[in-house]
């Protein structure tokens, strides 16, 4: 019984239909149709349905026999109605007077009006009819009026239709085109999002905590004469949680939350964007304290062009001007805070970023190792996983992944496990999910010859060998020659997430990139197009080191970086450009020679690695370690993990002798207890 009641409470009760203006429009159209059909209502009044048609000859016959009671003539229509005496109704209609009604008549179309007049006058003298009269059909007037008004009606119907199209089918339509499209959450707590749901972004959460505190306790700041920042700009790559963080701020503060996109201000009509800006700020001021969140603000906040011919847009600039005015026009105690998010902060107008508008920029960067671990723990809660899943390992496997990417990895792993009819999601499912997201789906149907397969194996083994013997190269995870996406083979590394990068580190990575091409030339005698991606990355790295980082011998400490969007000339001369080209070529060739020297030194191990790849198609770092021995260098990620483990708690070897002795006695007692239990069993 309780279950039934619960089900009814859950929303199974019948819902009452909601009022809609379309009902009124439908009723009006039906009424007009009825009036049109009935000739303005005259037919209803005159008893439509109790008549029949007859010829003019038949009409004269009825009159001569004395069936007619009276006649009504309509000269405009050329018709007459002969009303039949009740006692003769059955004779004329073959129905009873009760069925036909008291006003049964015969409808007749006549020819000459003069002849009809003479005939009716003569019939009245002879007593064949009681009376006859003339009428004008009022239905014609109504029809004529409708025809005359039809252009106006069509115009208003067109306006109404266009208004509904522009208003998205909602109320208001065209006449509310200047109204804001912001979604209002009266109680942001209803979103169910707090800082607990935002994992990893500890720095960003600390910065927005001040905004939350102001919305909860504004008097604490205003009494001291302080002013809370009117706006905060969340800046970061896509998928890092900017929108989620803004919702969490509103959820923590428990205030109304206006959410809209920058594109919601843009419309085809001039002045609409500025009107919507004013409207959303007007609504927000009425519900203060509250938060206005504008996602992708670069749609309206793009820097205004100095030259109108260079991509200027008056409507967008008017919208931006309205936004600038509204943000800097509030009083101190308005309680309206603007949060905005973008991944193109460099494109925003400087006036928007000044103090008093967006006072501060909050960077929401890609998560590091510890933050990725926290994000994984959030997204792994609904996933049924087994004991093989190691969160630390997953966090290390996903460098450069955003929060959205990590959520996608967890979802993809669950789909892969379900595809294989597993009850739980295991470690291999997560690895397959990461590989699929990075490299694409495996193409096991692609046919290759033995020579092609050997060439690919030598290429990938070259990458693995060089990275193993270069100190600063990224640590190897696995190597595969299974085609995946556009690549015929791939080597997975664990990129070092460095805060700063030295020249030696970049050169080691460049050498590892060139290892594939060097292995092809050394061990097959020819080179192929399989190294195009490696060469592209190596070339880009070389030019970045020389032109931007100042790591060249001939151009030291020089940076030619220019972030101007419309800059059509290089910030250096042609002579300097030639030097940059020469230095880049020299740097790449030096690392190529170095790669060939390392491969020549370790050619036996490289050949073993290639043969293992040909036979197994996929090998891991453990297999490489068996061939070359343990790598003499520890990766940066491993160093950080070891340091964190050391910080987790005190180590036994650092304790006093009394503590060590107590621990030894405890372990001895536990061992004796376990042995006794075993003997009893």
Written description of the protein model:
By secondary structure, this protein is of the alpha/beta class. The chain folds into five domains: 38-136, Signal recognition particle alu RNA binding heterodimer, srp9/1 (2-Layer Sandwich); 183-363, Rossmann fold; 369-439, Helicase, Ruva Protein, domain 3; 450-639, Up-down Bundle (Methane Monooxygenase Hydroxylase, Chain G, domain 1), CATH 1.20.58; 654-681. 52% of the residues lie in helices and 10% in strands. It contains 28 helices and 14 strands. A six-stranded mixed sheet has the order 6-8-9-10-7-11. A five-stranded mixed sheet has the order 1-4-3-2-5. A hairpin with a 4-residue loop joins strand 2 (68-74) and strand 3 (79-84). Helix 20 (450-469) crosses helix 22, helix 21 crosses helix 24 (574-601) and helix 22 (515-523) packs across helix 24 (574-601). The longest helix is centred in the first third of the chain and has 29 residues, at 138-166.
Explain briefly what this protein structure is.
With 681 residues, the chain is of the alpha/beta class.
Which characteristics define this entry?
single chain; 681 residues; alpha/beta; Signal recognition particle alu RNA binding heterodimer, srp9/1; Rossmann fold; Helicase, Ruva Protein, domain 3; 5 domains; six-stranded mixed sheet; five-stranded mixed sheet; 28 helices; 14 strands; 52% helix; 10% strand; disordered N terminus
């Amino acid at each position: 019984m309780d279950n039934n009641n619960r089900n009814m409470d859950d929303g199974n009760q019948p819902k009452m239909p909601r009022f809609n203006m379309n009902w009124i429009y439908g009723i009006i159209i039906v009424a007009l149709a009825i009036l049109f059909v009935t000739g303005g209502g005259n037919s209803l009044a005159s008893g439509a349905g109790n008549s029949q048609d007859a010829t003019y000859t038949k009409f004269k016959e009825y009159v001569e026999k004395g069936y007619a009671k009276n006649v009504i003539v309509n000269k405009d229509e050329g018709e007459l109605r002969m009303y039949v005496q009740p006692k003769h109704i059955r004779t004329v209609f073959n129905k009873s007077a009760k069925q036909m009604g008291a006003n049964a008549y015969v409808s007749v179309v006549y020819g000459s009006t003069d002849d009809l007049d003479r005939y009716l006058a003569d019939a009245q003298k002879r007593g064949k009819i009681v009376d006859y009269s003339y009428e004008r059909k009022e239905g014609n007037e109504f029809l004529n009026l409708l025809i005359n008004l039809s252009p106006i009606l069509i115009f208003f119907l067109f306006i109404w239709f266009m208004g509904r199209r522009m208003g998205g089918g909602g109320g208001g339509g065209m006449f509310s085109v200047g109204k804001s499209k912001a979604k209002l959450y009266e109680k942001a707590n209803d979103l169910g999002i707090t800082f607990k749901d935002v994992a990893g972004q500890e720095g960003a959460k600390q910065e927005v905590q001040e905004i939350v505190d102001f919305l909860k306790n504004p008097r604490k700041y205003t009494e001291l004469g302080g002013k809370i920042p009117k706006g905060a700009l969340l800046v970061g790559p896509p998928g890092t949680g900017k929108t989620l963080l803004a919702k969490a701020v509103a959820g923590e503060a428990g205030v109304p939350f206006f959410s809209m996109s920058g594109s919601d201000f843009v419309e085809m009509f001039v002045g609409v964007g500025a009107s919507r800006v004013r409207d959303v700020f007007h609504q927000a001021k009425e519900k203060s304290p509250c938060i206005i969140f504008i996602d992708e603000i670069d749609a309206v906040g793009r820097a205004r062009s100095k030259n109108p011919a260079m991509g200027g847009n008056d409507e967008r600039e008017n919208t931006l001007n309205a936004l600038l005015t509204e943000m800097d026009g509030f009083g101190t105690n308005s309680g309206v805070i603007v949060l905005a998010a973008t991944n193109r902060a460099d494109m925003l107008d400087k006036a928007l970023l000044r103090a008093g508008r967006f006072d501060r920029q909050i960077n929401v960067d890609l998560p590091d190792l510890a933050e990725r671990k926290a994000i994984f723990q959030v997204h792994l809660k609904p996933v049924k996983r087994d004991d093989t899943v190691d969160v630390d390992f997953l966090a290390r496997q996903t460098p450069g992944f955003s929060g959205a990417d990590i959520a996608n990895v967890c979802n993809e792993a669950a789909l892969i496990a379900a595809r294989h009819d597993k009850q739980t999601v295991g470690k291999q499912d997560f690895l397959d999910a990461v590989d699929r997201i990075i490299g694409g789906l495996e193409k096991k149907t692609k046919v290759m010859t033995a020579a092609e397969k050997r060439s690919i194996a030598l290429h990938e083994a070259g990458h693995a060998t060089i990275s193993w013997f270069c100190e600063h190269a990224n640590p190897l995870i696995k190597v595969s020659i299974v085609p995946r996406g556009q690549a015929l083979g791939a080597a997975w590394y664990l990129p070092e997430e460095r805060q700063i990068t030295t020249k030696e580190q970049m050169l080691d990575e460049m050498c590892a990139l060139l290892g594939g091409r060097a292995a092809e030339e050394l061990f097959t005698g020819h080179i192929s197009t399989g190294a195009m991606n490696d060469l592209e990355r190596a070339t880009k790295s070389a030019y970045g080191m020389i032109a931007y980082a100042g790591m060249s011998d001939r151009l030291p400490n020089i940076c030619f970086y220019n972030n101007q969007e419309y800059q059509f000339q290089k910030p250096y001369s042609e002579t300097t450009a030639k030097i940059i080209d020469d230095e880049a070529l020299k740097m790449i060739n030096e690392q190529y020679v170095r790669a060939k020297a390392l491969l020549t030194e370790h050619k036996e191990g490289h050949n073993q690695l290639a043969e293992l790849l040909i036979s197994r198609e996929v090998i891991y770092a453990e297999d490489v370690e068996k061939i070359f021995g343990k790598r003499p260098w520890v990766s940066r990620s491993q160093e950080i993990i070891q340091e964190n483990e050391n910080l987790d708690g005190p180590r036994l070897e650092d304790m006093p002798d009394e503590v060590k002795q107590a621990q030894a006695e405890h372990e001895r007692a536990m061992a004796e207890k376990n042995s006794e239990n075993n003997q009893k069993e």
